[in-house]
Amino acid sequence: MFRFRKTWLSLALLGLSVGVCAQSSVKITNLGRDATAKEVAAWDIDVRPDFKGLPAGSGTVEKGQEIWEAKCASCHGFFGESGEVFNPLIGGVQPNDLVTGHVQNLTNPNYPGRTTFMKVATISTVWDFINRAMPWNAPKTLKTDEVYSVLDFMLNIAGIVPEDFVLNEKTMHDVQARMPNRHSMTRQHALWPGKEFGGVAKPDTQNVACMSNCTPEPKLASLLPEFARNAHGNLAEQNRMVGAQHGADTSRPESATGERQAPVSAPPAAIDKAPSKVDDTKPDAKKAVSLLQKNGCLVCHGINNKIVGPAYSDVAKKHAGQVDYLAGKIKSGGVGVWGSIPMPPQTLNATDAKVIATWLAAGANK
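Given the sequence above, the corresponding C-alpha coordinates read:
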Protein backbone atom coordinates (compact mmCIF):
# COMPACT_ATOMS: atom_id res chain seq x y z
CA MET A 1 0.00 0.00 0.00
CA PHE A 2 2.86 2.33 0.81
CA ARG A 3 4.54 1.55 -2.55
CA PHE A 4 1.26 2.28 -4.36
CA ARG A 5 0.92 5.71 -2.73
CA LYS A 6 4.57 6.49 -3.56
CA THR A 7 4.04 5.53 -7.20
CA TRP A 8 0.83 7.59 -7.43
CA LEU A 9 2.59 10.66 -5.95
CA SER A 10 5.46 10.33 -8.44
CA LEU A 11 3.02 10.16 -11.39
CA ALA A 12 1.15 13.24 -10.08
CA LEU A 13 4.35 15.25 -9.78
CA LEU A 14 5.40 14.15 -13.28
CA GLY A 15 2.06 15.22 -14.70
CA LEU A 16 2.35 18.61 -12.96
CA SER A 17 5.82 19.24 -14.38
CA VAL A 18 4.64 18.29 -17.88
CA GLY A 19 1.71 20.67 -17.48
CA VAL A 20 4.02 23.51 -16.43
CA CYS A 21 6.34 22.89 -19.38
CA ALA A 22 3.38 22.76 -21.73
CA GLN A 23 2.07 26.04 -20.40
CA SER A 24 5.47 27.75 -20.79
CA SER A 25 5.56 26.86 -24.49
CA VAL A 26 2.07 28.15 -25.27
CA LYS A 27 2.05 31.25 -27.49
CA ILE A 28 -0.01 34.15 -26.24
CA THR A 29 -2.50 35.36 -28.83
CA ASN A 30 -5.12 38.10 -29.02
CA LEU A 31 -2.89 40.52 -27.14
CA GLY A 32 -3.53 44.11 -28.22
CA ARG A 33 -4.85 45.20 -31.61
CA ASP A 34 -3.77 47.02 -34.72
CA ALA A 35 -3.78 50.82 -34.47
CA THR A 36 -6.60 52.49 -36.33
CA ALA A 37 -5.95 54.88 -39.19
CA LYS A 38 -7.09 57.76 -36.97
CA GLU A 39 -4.65 56.78 -34.21
CA VAL A 40 -1.76 56.52 -36.65
CA ALA A 41 -2.63 59.92 -38.12
CA ALA A 42 -2.53 61.48 -34.63
CA TRP A 43 1.11 60.34 -34.24
CA ASP A 44 2.27 60.73 -37.83
CA ILE A 45 2.52 64.53 -37.80
CA ASP A 46 6.18 65.15 -38.67
CA VAL A 47 6.98 67.35 -41.67
CA ARG A 48 10.09 66.52 -43.69
CA PRO A 49 12.37 68.96 -45.51
CA ASP A 50 10.74 67.92 -48.79
CA PHE A 51 7.37 68.89 -47.19
CA LYS A 52 6.06 65.34 -47.07
CA GLY A 53 3.54 65.27 -44.23
CA LEU A 54 2.66 68.97 -44.51
CA PRO A 55 -1.14 69.32 -44.20
CA ALA A 56 -3.24 71.59 -46.38
CA GLY A 57 -4.07 74.99 -44.87
CA SER A 58 -3.21 78.68 -45.03
CA GLY A 59 -2.50 81.66 -42.82
CA THR A 60 -1.93 85.38 -42.97
CA VAL A 61 0.43 87.77 -41.22
CA GLU A 62 -2.47 89.71 -39.69
CA LYS A 63 -4.08 86.61 -38.19
CA GLY A 64 -0.70 85.37 -37.03
CA GLN A 65 -0.05 88.59 -35.14
CA GLU A 66 -3.32 88.20 -33.22
CA ILE A 67 -2.41 84.66 -32.17
CA TRP A 68 1.18 85.68 -31.41
CA GLU A 69 0.20 88.50 -29.05
CA ALA A 70 -2.30 86.24 -27.26
CA LYS A 71 -0.23 83.06 -26.90
CA CYS A 72 3.41 83.66 -27.84
CA ALA A 73 4.56 87.16 -26.89
CA SER A 74 4.66 86.46 -23.14
CA CYS A 75 7.66 84.17 -23.68
CA HIS A 76 9.20 85.40 -26.94
CA GLY A 77 8.47 89.14 -26.90
CA PHE A 78 6.16 91.01 -29.28
CA PHE A 79 8.73 90.81 -32.06
CA GLY A 80 10.37 87.49 -31.19
CA GLU A 81 13.43 89.28 -29.87
CA SER A 82 13.14 88.46 -26.17
CA GLY A 83 15.70 86.26 -24.46
CA GLU A 84 14.17 86.40 -20.99
CA VAL A 85 12.52 82.95 -21.12
CA PHE A 86 13.84 81.25 -24.26
CA ASN A 87 16.50 82.13 -26.80
CA PRO A 88 15.52 84.92 -29.20
CA LEU A 89 13.77 83.79 -32.38
CA ILE A 90 14.11 86.85 -34.58
CA GLY A 91 17.08 89.08 -35.38
CA GLY A 92 20.52 88.99 -36.95
CA VAL A 93 19.32 88.33 -40.51
CA GLN A 94 20.35 90.81 -43.21
CA PRO A 95 18.73 91.26 -46.66
CA ASN A 96 21.73 89.84 -48.48
CA ASP A 97 21.44 86.62 -46.45
CA LEU A 98 18.19 85.83 -48.29
CA VAL A 99 20.15 85.91 -51.55
CA THR A 100 23.25 83.96 -50.48
CA GLY A 101 21.56 81.44 -48.20
CA HIS A 102 24.31 81.98 -45.62
CA VAL A 103 23.84 84.20 -42.55
CA GLN A 104 26.82 86.51 -42.34
CA ASN A 105 26.44 87.25 -38.62
CA LEU A 106 27.06 83.58 -37.80
CA THR A 107 30.72 84.21 -38.67
CA ASN A 108 30.86 87.54 -36.86
CA PRO A 109 32.45 86.97 -33.42
CA ASN A 110 31.22 90.36 -32.21
CA TYR A 111 27.54 89.63 -32.83
CA PRO A 112 25.97 89.15 -29.38
CA GLY A 113 23.80 86.06 -29.98
CA ARG A 114 22.34 83.45 -32.29
CA THR A 115 18.62 83.56 -33.07
CA THR A 116 16.49 80.76 -34.47
CA PHE A 117 16.11 82.28 -37.93
CA MET A 118 19.85 82.86 -38.12
CA LYS A 119 20.51 79.14 -37.68
CA VAL A 120 17.60 77.08 -39.02
CA ALA A 121 18.07 75.82 -42.58
CA THR A 122 14.63 74.38 -43.37
CA ILE A 123 11.28 76.12 -42.88
CA SER A 124 9.63 72.72 -42.36
CA THR A 125 11.56 72.43 -39.09
CA VAL A 126 9.94 75.58 -37.71
CA TRP A 127 6.45 74.57 -38.89
CA ASP A 128 6.84 71.11 -37.35
CA PHE A 129 8.04 72.45 -34.00
CA ILE A 130 5.25 75.02 -33.68
CA ASN A 131 2.69 72.37 -34.62
CA ARG A 132 3.82 69.75 -32.10
CA ALA A 133 5.18 71.81 -29.21
CA MET A 134 3.68 75.30 -29.06
CA PRO A 135 2.41 76.99 -26.98
CA TRP A 136 4.69 75.30 -24.47
CA ASN A 137 1.97 75.16 -21.78
CA ALA A 138 -0.65 73.76 -24.20
CA PRO A 139 1.14 71.90 -27.04
CA LYS A 140 -0.80 70.66 -30.09
CA THR A 141 -3.69 73.03 -29.40
CA LEU A 142 -3.08 75.24 -32.44
CA LYS A 143 -5.18 74.43 -35.49
CA THR A 144 -3.44 73.93 -38.82
CA ASP A 145 -4.41 77.37 -40.16
CA GLU A 146 -3.22 78.93 -36.89
CA VAL A 147 0.20 77.27 -37.27
CA TYR A 148 0.46 78.68 -40.80
CA SER A 149 -0.56 82.13 -39.54
CA VAL A 150 1.90 82.21 -36.63
CA LEU A 151 4.73 81.10 -38.90
CA ASP A 152 3.70 83.68 -41.52
CA PHE A 153 3.94 86.42 -38.86
CA MET A 154 7.38 85.20 -37.76
CA LEU A 155 8.61 85.17 -41.35
CA ASN A 156 7.33 88.71 -41.80
CA ILE A 157 9.03 90.20 -38.74
CA ALA A 158 12.20 88.31 -39.72
CA GLY A 159 12.14 90.18 -43.04
CA ILE A 160 11.69 87.04 -45.16
CA VAL A 161 8.15 87.64 -46.52
CA PRO A 162 6.05 90.82 -47.00
CA GLU A 163 2.98 91.73 -44.93
CA ASP A 164 0.49 90.53 -47.57
CA PHE A 165 2.11 87.10 -47.99
CA VAL A 166 -0.26 84.15 -47.62
CA LEU A 167 1.48 81.05 -46.30
CA ASN A 168 0.11 77.65 -47.29
CA GLU A 169 1.31 74.18 -48.27
CA LYS A 170 2.23 75.44 -51.75
CA THR A 171 3.93 78.75 -50.90
CA MET A 172 6.09 76.98 -48.29
CA HIS A 173 8.33 76.00 -51.22
CA ASP A 174 8.80 79.68 -52.09
CA VAL A 175 9.71 80.47 -48.49
CA GLN A 176 12.30 77.68 -48.41
CA ALA A 177 14.04 79.32 -51.37
CA ARG A 178 14.43 82.50 -49.26
CA MET A 179 15.49 80.97 -45.95
CA PRO A 180 18.57 82.99 -44.88
CA ASN A 181 20.63 79.97 -43.76
CA ARG A 182 19.33 77.38 -46.26
CA HIS A 183 22.76 76.52 -47.68
CA SER A 184 24.46 75.97 -44.32
CA MET A 185 23.16 72.48 -43.51
CA THR A 186 25.26 69.50 -44.50
CA ARG A 187 23.68 66.43 -46.08
CA GLN A 188 26.93 64.47 -46.27
CA HIS A 189 26.30 62.39 -43.14
CA ALA A 190 24.33 59.41 -44.56
CA LEU A 191 21.79 59.66 -41.73
CA TRP A 192 18.89 59.91 -44.18
CA PRO A 193 18.20 56.77 -46.22
CA GLY A 194 18.51 57.04 -49.97
CA LYS A 195 19.44 60.14 -51.92
CA GLU A 196 16.10 61.95 -51.88
CA PHE A 197 17.62 64.87 -49.94
CA GLY A 198 20.86 64.99 -51.92
CA GLY A 199 22.71 62.92 -49.37
CA VAL A 200 25.38 60.26 -49.78
CA ALA A 201 25.41 56.52 -49.24
CA LYS A 202 28.54 56.57 -47.08
CA PRO A 203 29.11 58.69 -43.97
CA ASP A 204 31.39 61.71 -43.97
CA THR A 205 33.97 59.98 -41.76
CA GLN A 206 36.56 57.97 -43.67
CA ASN A 207 38.80 56.84 -40.82
CA VAL A 208 41.19 53.95 -41.44
CA ALA A 209 42.71 51.97 -38.60
CA CYS A 210 46.44 52.64 -38.24
CA MET A 211 48.45 49.42 -38.46
CA SER A 212 52.07 50.66 -38.68
CA ASN A 213 54.15 53.70 -37.72
CA CYS A 214 51.24 54.85 -35.57
CA THR A 215 51.42 58.06 -33.60
CA PRO A 216 51.68 57.75 -29.81
CA GLU A 217 48.40 57.20 -28.04
CA PRO A 218 47.14 60.53 -26.67
CA LYS A 219 46.93 60.95 -22.91
CA LEU A 220 43.82 62.74 -21.77
CA ALA A 221 43.46 64.68 -18.55
CA SER A 222 41.29 67.43 -17.18
CA LEU A 223 41.62 70.31 -14.78
CA LEU A 224 39.58 73.16 -13.45
CA PRO A 225 40.69 76.67 -14.42
CA GLU A 226 41.59 78.75 -11.38
CA PHE A 227 38.59 81.09 -11.68
CA ALA A 228 36.19 78.12 -11.50
CA ARG A 229 38.13 75.90 -9.09
CA ASN A 230 36.25 76.86 -5.93
CA ALA A 231 33.22 78.49 -7.54
CA HIS A 232 30.79 76.17 -5.75
CA GLY A 233 32.67 75.47 -2.54
CA ASN A 234 35.27 72.86 -1.65
CA LEU A 235 34.49 69.67 -3.59
CA ALA A 236 36.31 67.53 -1.04
CA GLU A 237 33.72 68.51 1.59
CA GLN A 238 30.78 67.65 -0.66
CA ASN A 239 31.52 63.98 -1.39
CA ARG A 240 31.15 60.84 0.67
CA MET A 241 34.38 59.62 2.25
CA VAL A 242 33.95 56.11 0.80
CA GLY A 243 34.53 54.95 -2.73
CA ALA A 244 37.07 55.90 -5.35
CA GLN A 245 36.14 59.54 -5.83
CA HIS A 246 36.62 61.72 -2.77
CA GLY A 247 36.67 65.06 -4.54
CA ALA A 248 39.56 67.47 -5.00
CA ASP A 249 40.42 70.02 -2.34
CA THR A 250 39.42 73.08 -4.33
CA SER A 251 40.01 75.49 -1.47
CA ARG A 252 43.69 75.52 -2.44
CA PRO A 253 45.43 75.97 -5.82
CA GLU A 254 46.02 72.79 -7.77
CA SER A 255 49.80 73.05 -7.44
CA ALA A 256 49.53 73.22 -3.62
CA THR A 257 47.44 70.05 -3.29
CA GLY A 258 49.80 67.67 -5.01
CA GLU A 259 47.24 66.80 -7.68
CA ARG A 260 48.44 65.58 -11.05
CA GLN A 261 48.99 68.51 -13.36
CA ALA A 262 47.08 68.10 -16.60
CA PRO A 263 48.69 69.15 -19.89
CA VAL A 264 47.52 72.55 -20.99
CA SER A 265 45.31 72.14 -24.06
CA ALA A 266 42.93 75.04 -23.55
CA PRO A 267 42.89 77.95 -25.99
CA PRO A 268 44.98 81.00 -25.06
CA ALA A 269 41.88 82.91 -23.95
CA ALA A 270 41.26 80.38 -21.18
CA ILE A 271 44.79 80.54 -19.71
CA ASP A 272 45.38 82.93 -16.82
CA LYS A 273 48.32 84.91 -18.11
CA ALA A 274 51.06 86.14 -15.84
CA PRO A 275 50.09 89.52 -14.42
CA SER A 276 52.06 92.52 -15.52
CA LYS A 277 53.33 95.10 -13.08
CA VAL A 278 51.00 98.09 -13.17
CA ASP A 279 49.81 100.66 -10.71
CA ASP A 280 46.26 99.47 -10.04
CA THR A 281 45.47 102.16 -7.47
CA LYS A 282 44.69 104.79 -10.12
CA PRO A 283 42.08 104.44 -12.86
CA ASP A 284 43.52 104.03 -16.34
CA ALA A 285 40.61 104.64 -18.70
CA LYS A 286 42.56 103.94 -21.87
CA LYS A 287 43.89 100.60 -20.63
CA ALA A 288 40.51 99.62 -19.14
CA VAL A 289 38.61 100.24 -22.38
CA SER A 290 41.32 98.42 -24.31
CA LEU A 291 40.89 95.40 -22.03
CA LEU A 292 37.12 95.54 -22.47
CA GLN A 293 37.54 95.43 -26.23
CA LYS A 294 40.16 92.69 -26.08
CA ASN A 295 37.99 90.40 -23.93
CA GLY A 296 34.74 91.00 -25.84
CA CYS A 297 33.02 92.79 -22.94
CA LEU A 298 31.65 95.57 -25.15
CA VAL A 299 29.53 93.05 -27.03
CA CYS A 300 27.16 92.85 -24.05
CA HIS A 301 27.87 96.16 -22.25
CA GLY A 302 27.97 99.70 -23.59
CA ILE A 303 29.93 102.46 -21.89
CA ASN A 304 26.80 104.62 -21.50
CA ASN A 305 24.06 102.34 -22.85
CA LYS A 306 22.60 98.98 -21.94
CA ILE A 307 22.96 96.18 -24.52
CA VAL A 308 22.53 92.70 -23.02
CA GLY A 309 23.92 93.71 -19.66
CA PRO A 310 23.92 97.11 -17.90
CA ALA A 311 25.86 100.16 -19.07
CA TYR A 312 29.24 100.56 -17.40
CA SER A 313 28.24 104.06 -16.31
CA ASP A 314 25.31 102.55 -14.38
CA VAL A 315 27.58 99.93 -12.78
CA ALA A 316 29.97 102.72 -11.76
CA LYS A 317 27.17 104.67 -10.04
CA LYS A 318 25.85 101.61 -8.20
CA HIS A 319 29.23 100.37 -6.97
CA ALA A 320 31.31 103.54 -6.63
CA GLY A 321 34.57 102.88 -4.76
CA GLN A 322 34.01 99.10 -4.50
CA VAL A 323 37.12 97.98 -6.35
CA ASP A 324 37.50 94.54 -4.75
CA TYR A 325 33.81 93.72 -5.16
CA LEU A 326 33.84 94.67 -8.83
CA ALA A 327 37.04 92.74 -9.51
CA GLY A 328 35.53 89.67 -7.90
CA LYS A 329 32.29 89.95 -9.91
CA ILE A 330 34.22 90.33 -13.16
CA LYS A 331 36.10 87.11 -12.48
CA SER A 332 33.24 85.03 -11.04
CA GLY A 333 30.25 86.37 -13.02
CA GLY A 334 26.77 86.12 -11.56
CA VAL A 335 23.07 86.73 -12.04
CA GLY A 336 20.28 88.62 -10.27
CA VAL A 337 21.91 91.99 -9.62
CA TRP A 338 20.95 93.46 -13.00
CA GLY A 339 18.23 91.06 -14.10
CA SER A 340 17.74 87.42 -14.98
CA ILE A 341 20.31 87.18 -17.79
CA PRO A 342 23.52 85.69 -16.30
CA MET A 343 27.04 86.94 -16.88
CA PRO A 344 29.48 84.01 -17.22
CA PRO A 345 32.83 83.98 -15.37
CA GLN A 346 35.56 85.84 -17.24
CA THR A 347 38.97 84.34 -18.03
CA LEU A 348 41.12 87.47 -17.85
CA ASN A 349 43.79 87.50 -15.13
CA ALA A 350 43.38 89.16 -11.74
CA THR A 351 45.53 92.16 -12.62
CA ASP A 352 43.50 93.03 -15.70
CA ALA A 353 40.28 92.55 -13.74
CA LYS A 354 41.63 94.98 -11.12
CA VAL A 355 42.36 97.59 -13.82
CA ILE A 356 38.77 97.43 -15.08
CA ALA A 357 37.35 97.38 -11.55
CA THR A 358 39.42 100.46 -10.55
CA TRP A 359 38.16 102.31 -13.62
CA LEU A 360 34.55 101.35 -12.83
CA ALA A 361 34.83 102.26 -9.16
CA ALA A 362 36.16 105.70 -10.13
CA GLY A 363 33.19 106.50 -12.39
CA ALA A 364 33.92 104.77 -15.72
CA ASN A 365 35.01 108.01 -17.37
CA LYS A 366 36.61 107.89 -20.83
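Strands lie at 58-60, 166-168. Try to locate this feature in the C-alpha coordinate string yourself.
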